[in-house]
């Protein structure tokens, strides 16, 4: 759970990038021009639904003063993907299977299968946000040869703020467009997370059950189930933002804020990412902003019967206020 929470916090930081007030895009490069100038990015985006491989990947996340590292075995056949964790990993025994519609995540410790939305569009949506920030002038991009990763020749894409501070780096297979390595940085340039493929096989052999989870006796848990369970533990009503064309619920996680208990619900859509914090008590909304990793994110919060609700996201505060009125 700690590892999954850290991943979500890092994704929130990445989607906001080095977020600064947006600049008018007039006169600057447009997205098609950027992809024309850097064809390896276009290749990466277009390859997402065609990739077929098996590989071994190391994923490391900074968790406060510590770093947690998992080793993953990844199988991919177009829209189908299977991820399992090796026995020397903190998440050993967990298995994730995904298709174009949904993701199933098996937790052996609780004998649960969480049923979640698919994340197949995540690379494309993150890339759209990054390209939009380049158009706005809040990010800079440069591409150079990246050497070899997993014995494959790569192109290295640097995403930096206007002063040259690193935000993230992508090592892309120059031939296939596959993302082989990725590094994320905090505001002072320290690496806060990365993944890297150590081995890759573009001619794997799969069987149909590689992309299925069949576990008799396991309990199926949906995101709405998770909201109800956590709300019952916290003693607060189970509320959420209704799914829409603009936003859909992606994850639900518990959150420890010292002696205060809370949950966070993460929603994603074309316009960015919004997190709903539901706290059993009072809390300074700016603390939640800092937890999300970027002081430029917008916050809208309110209290109701001794509990605090807050929306944090990379969309205008007026839109966060509108979303607050939809919560049921």
Describe the structure.
- The chain has 328 residues and is of the alpha+beta class.
- The protein has two domains: 2-211, outer membrane lipoprotein receptor (LolB), chain A (Clam), CATH 2.50.20; 222-324, Phosphorylase Kinase, domain 1 (2-Layer Sandwich).
- 23% of the residues lie in helices and 42% in strands.
- It contains seven helices and 17 strands.
- Strands 7-8-9-10-11-1-2-3-4-5-6-12 form a twelve-stranded mixed beta sheet. It has a five-stranded antiparallel beta sheet with strand order 13-14-15-17-16, with helices on both faces.
- α2 packs across α3.
- The two termini are 26 Å apart.
- Mean pLDDT is 85; it is low at 1-28.
SSE diagram, text form:
Elements: H1 2-16, H2 31-37, H3 39-47, E1 52-63, E2 66-77, E3 80-85, E4 95-98, E5 102-107, E6 112-117, H4 122-136, E7 140-149, E8 152-160, E9 166-173, E10 179-185, E11 191-201, E12 219-222, H5 223-234, E13 248-257, E14 260-269, E15 272-279, H6 285-292, E16 298-304, E17 307-313, H7 317-324
Helix pairs in contact: 2-3
């Amino acid at each position: 759970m700690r590892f999954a929470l850290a991943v979500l916090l890092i994704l929130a930081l990445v989607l906001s990038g080095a977020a600064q007030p947006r600049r008018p895009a007039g006169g600057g490069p447009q997205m098609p021009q950027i992809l024309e100038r850097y064809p390896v990015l276009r290749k990466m985006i277009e390859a997402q639904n065609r990739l077929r491989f098996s590989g071994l990947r190391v994923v490391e996340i900074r968790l406060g003063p510590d770093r947690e590292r998992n080793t993953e075995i990844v199988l991919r056949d177009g829209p189908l993907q299977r991820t399992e964790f090796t026995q020397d990993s903190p998440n050993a025994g967990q298995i994730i299977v995904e298709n174009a519609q949904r993701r199933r995540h098996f937790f052996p410790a609780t004998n649960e299968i969480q049923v979640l939305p698919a994340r197949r569009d995540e690379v494309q949506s993150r890339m759209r946000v990054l390209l939009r920030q380049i158009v706005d002038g809040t990010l800079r991009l440069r591409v150079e040869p990246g050497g070899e990763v997993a014995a494959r020749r790569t192109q290295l894409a640097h995403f930096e703020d206007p002063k040259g501070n690193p935000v993230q780096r992508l090592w892309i297979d120059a031939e296939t467009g596959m993302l082989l390595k990725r590094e994320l940085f905090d505001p002072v340039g320290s690496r806060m997370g990365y993944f890297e493929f150590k081995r890759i096989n573009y001619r794997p052999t799969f069987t149909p059950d590689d992309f299925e989870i069949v576990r008799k006796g396991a309990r199926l848990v949906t995101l709405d189930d998770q909201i109800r369970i956590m709300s019952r533990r916290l003693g607060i009503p189970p509320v959420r933002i209704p799914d829409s064309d603009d936003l859909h619920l992606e994850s639900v996680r518990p959150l420890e804020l010292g002696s205060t208990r809370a949950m966070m619900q993460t929603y994603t859509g074309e316009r960015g990412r919004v997190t709903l914090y539901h706290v059993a008590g009072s809390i300074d909304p700016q603390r939640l902003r800092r937890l999300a990793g970027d002081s430029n994110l917008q916050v809208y919060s309110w209290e109701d019967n001794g509990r605090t609700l807050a929306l944090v996201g990379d969309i205008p505060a007026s839109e966060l206020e509108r979303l607050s009125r939809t919560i049921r």
